[in-house]
Every structure is written in structure tokens, then in C-alpha cells.
TrEMBL record:
UniProt-recorded name of the protein: Argininosuccinate synthase
GO terms under cellular component: cytoplasm
Pathway: Amino-acid biosynthesis; L-arginine biosynthesis; L-arginine from L-ornithine and carbamoyl phosphate: step 2/3
Positions with a binding annotation for L-aspartate: T119, N123, D124
Domain Arginosuccinate synthase-like N-terminal stretches: 4-165
Record bears the keyword ATP-binding: yes
Main subcellular localisation: cytoplasm
Origin species: Corynebacterium pollutisoli
Annotated Gene3D superfamilies: Argininosuccinate synthetase, chain A, domain 2, HUPs, Single helix bin
EC identifiers of the protein: 6.3.4.5
Residues annotated to bind L-citrulline: Y87, N123, R127, S175, E259, Y271
Places the protein is found: Cytoplasm
Recorded catalytic activity of this chain's protein: L-citrulline + L-aspartate + ATP = 2-(N(omega)-L-arginino)succinate + AMP + diphosphate + H(+)
Length: 400
């Protein structure tokens, strides 16, 4: 049986040249699979046709925008998914969805291999390949950039050798990955940690100092899911798109960080994710109102662990599934409205309301009508600190 390689196809230079290259290296055929994840830019029909023109025997384009929003972005909102307390997992949550559709395409089109364009030093190779092995371990995996030491220079030379028409955008110094949840930029002059990012690298966000008037809005949630903006019902996808637009206009969601990669190296990454940052900030604010203290404390630990599992490519792992079950169980009362202001790159929450709120005005107020019994506090404070008081007394006596 001849090889049939199912390729995760972006439409860019590297994966376009990979089509004839994989056919040559395997002696088989290539099926290109492209997903519309709300990344914008080029028309997906043009992407489909380019794959065919480059030698693919099949070119499949899948509109996965709502699926991505509902099944991957929404769990990230519920988990307040932020790797290293900063990064909203822009690329990490898209890879398991791409894996799912590549494995399905392999089954439908008789694929024997799956292929991706990742290098050997990044996180995405792990996310793709662990996913492939979880979903169908019988599929062989080919990673040209890693397995064949495939560089951009080699890709261009090979394209010229076989007269493959390619876009001369190869001069771009950056590696960019984007979807509706956000945009990731790396490499080029950004690899020098002292170099500040220039304005030209941003596409989803305006300059924060542009001087736009503040934008106040209300996000409504039901069970942890965003369901309306300013009272207008929205799907999860529509919520992200609307907040990308409004947050982007205010320069909200820019991030410049040094990231601890799974492979053991540190990497400088630039992100812009206005919708993601706004939704997570609003969701956290609503949880502050609706989750009981001990549950909230523990959930913050779970959220951090969930983010690490997803970042590390273990979306399909048993721990991630169990953490999902816990997180879902915490969302029953995360229903209500959060009012916030977007301005000059900042997100400021200034209003909260919920029928499930645990905030009791009469207990919290310092004015007349206060129902908190302050006479209980003296004994509570003494008992709370009693164990450390005893320990400190012992240590003082030991030094005398």
C-alpha cells in the first residue's frame, strides 16, 4: 500500500512546498487539510486551490469557527486559562482541534501518515504528535522541518527546482500563528530580549496611546458562558469577535513575555488577544462574586494546572478530562453581568451583579444596618493565630 499523507495545511510557503516534498520523500500522495479558525486574511477557497495547484490529490477546507469557540475557547474561559498567569493559550487550544480533523480526514481518505510543519524546538510538535497518538496510534507521523532538517532556504530552493509558484513573502522575519482567540508572533529581531516590538508587528490591536475615548460595556454570563454583550445575545464566537473589535480598538490584549517552553528552553513571545483577555478578566470577576471562598481558592490552583496541561499538549489526557469535570461543576452559579471599561490598553472592571452573588451588603457595610456581629471577632482572631503564637513562644524560649 502506497503512502497517503494527510497534511495540516496553512496555505503559507512552508506547507505549500511541503506538498510536493512529502510526495517525493514518501513516494505517495498528499491530502491537504485546512481549518478556518477565524484567523481572517486570505479567502479559504484560495488556500484550497493553492494546495491542489501544488500537487495535493485532495484539498479539504473546514469551517471550524463555531466548533473552536464552543469546544475549545469556552473551556479556556471557564478555566481562566492563562499559562504562567499571562498567556491565554492562543496556539495551544487550536492544535487539538486540528488533530481531530486530520485524524478524521485520514480515516475518510485512507491516510497512512499525518504531517505538520513544526520544528524540533517548539511546543506544537508535542501538541500535534501526542494528539495523533492519543487519537490513532497507527498513523505514521512526518515532520519535515524536524525530521528532514527542512529550512526556509531549502524550501525556496526546492520550489524553484520544480518550478512551483510561491509567494515571495518569505522575507518576513517573523513566525506568526493566529486564530479568532488571538495572534502569536515570534522570531526575527524579537529573539534579542532587549529589542522592543515595533508597531508593524501588530494586526489585531491599535496603538494603546491612540487616544480613543473609553469604551464601557457589559458582558453577561450563564453558567460561565458568555451569552450577551450590552444586552444583545451572542454566541461564543460572536462574543470573541465583538470583543476583539472593541478591545483591539483600545489596544487591549497585548503581551510581551519570556515563556518556559515544554522542551526546556525559554522563548520570547509577543501575543495580542483582546477578546480572550477581556472574557477571562470578566469571567474571573464574576467568579469572585459567585464562588465560595474555599472553592475559589482551590479552583485557582486547578486553573493553573489546567493551563499547564493544555500548554504541554495534553488536551486529550486523563488529568485534563478530570480537571474539566471539576471546572464544569464550579460553573453552576457563575451567572450574572460584569461591567468593564476598555481604555488605553487596560481592562477595568467597575460593576458586578448576579442573582447568585455571595456578597451580602448587610454583612459588608460599615454603616448603620450592619448585621455582622463584631463581638465574635476577638475570639476568632485569637484562635486563628493560636498555633503560630504557641510556636513562636517556643522558639523565643529556645534562644534564651
Amino acid at each position: 500500500m502506497s503512502a497517503r499523507v494527510v497534511l495540516a495545511y496553512s496555505g503559507g510557503l512552508d506547507t505549500t512546498v511541503a506538498i510536493p516534498y512529502l510526495a517525493k520523500m514518501t513516494g505517495g500522495e498528499v491530502v491537504a487539510v485546512s481549518l478556518d479558525l477565524g484567523q481572517g486574511g486570505e479567502d479559504m477557497e484560495s488556500v484550497r486551490q493553492r494546495a491542489l495547484d501544488s500537487g495535493a490529490v485532495e484539498s479539504i477546507v473546514i469551517d471550524a469557527r463555531d466548533e473552536f469557540a464552543d469546544e475549545y475557547c469556552l473551556p479556556t474561559i471557564k478555566a481562566n486559562g492563562m499559562y504562567m498567569k499571562q498567556y491565554p493559550l492562543v496556539s495551544a487550544i487550536s492544535r487539538p482541534l486540528i488533530v481531530k480533523h486530520l485524524v478524521e480526514a485520514a480515516k475518510e481518505h485512507g491516510g497512512t501518515h499525518v504531517s505538520h510543519g513544526c520544528t524540533g524546538k517548539g511546543n506544537d510538535q508535542v501538541r500535534f504528535e501526542v494528539g495523533f497518538r492519543n487519537a490513532n496510534p497507527d498513523l505514521e507521523i512526518i515532520a519535515p522541518a524536524r525530521d528532514y532538517a527542512w529550512t526556509r532556504d531549502k524550501a525556496i530552493a526546492f520550489a524553484e527546482e520544480i518550478d512551483l509558484p510561491i509567494e515571495q513573502s518569505a522575507s518576513s522575519p517573523f513566525s506568526i500563528d493566529q486564530n479568532v482567540w488571538g495572534r502569536a508572533i515570534e522570531t526575527g529581531y524579537l529573539e534579542d530580549l532587549w529589542n522592543a516590538p515595533t508597531k508593524d508587528i501588530y494586526a489585531y490591536t491599535e496603538e494603546p496611546t491612540l487616544g480613543n475615548a473609553p469604551d464601557e460595556l457589559i458582558i453577561s454570563f450563564e453558567g460561565g458562558k458568555p451569552v450577551a454583550i450590552d444586552g444583545k445575545p451572542v454566541t461564543v464566537l460572536e462574543a470573541i469577535e465583538e470583543l476583539n473589535r472593541r478591545g483591539g480598538a483600545q489596544g487591549v490584549g497585548r503581551l510581551d513575555m519570556v515563556e518556559d517552553r515544554l522542551v526546556g528552553i525559554k522563548s520570547r513571545e509577543i501575543y495580542e488577544a483582546p477578546g480572550a483577555m477581556i472574557l477571562i478578566k470578566a469571567h474571573e470577576a464574576l467568579e469572585d462574586v459567585t464562588l465560595e471562598r474555599e472553592l475559589a481558592r482551590y479552583k485557582r490552583l486547578v486553573d493553573a494546572r489546567w493551563s499547564e496541561e493544555v500548554y504541554d499538549g495534553l488536551w486529550f489526557g486523563p488529568l485534563k478530562r478530570s480537571l474539566d469535570a471539576f471546572i464544569d461543576s464550579t460553573q453552576e452559579h457563575v451567572t450574572g453581568d460584569i461591567r468593564l471599561v476598555l481604555h488605553a490598553g487596560s481592562i477595568t472592571v467597575n460593576g458586578r451583579r448576579s442573582n447568585h452573588s455571595l456578597y451580602d451588603f448587610n454583612l459588608a457595610t460599615y454603616d448603620t444596618g450592619d448585621t455582622f456581629d463584631q463581638t465574635m471577632a476577638k475570639g476568632f482572631v485569637k484562635l486563628h493565630g493560636l498555633s503560630s503564637e504557641i510556636a513562636n513562644k517556643r522558639d523565643r524560649e529556645a534562644t534564651n
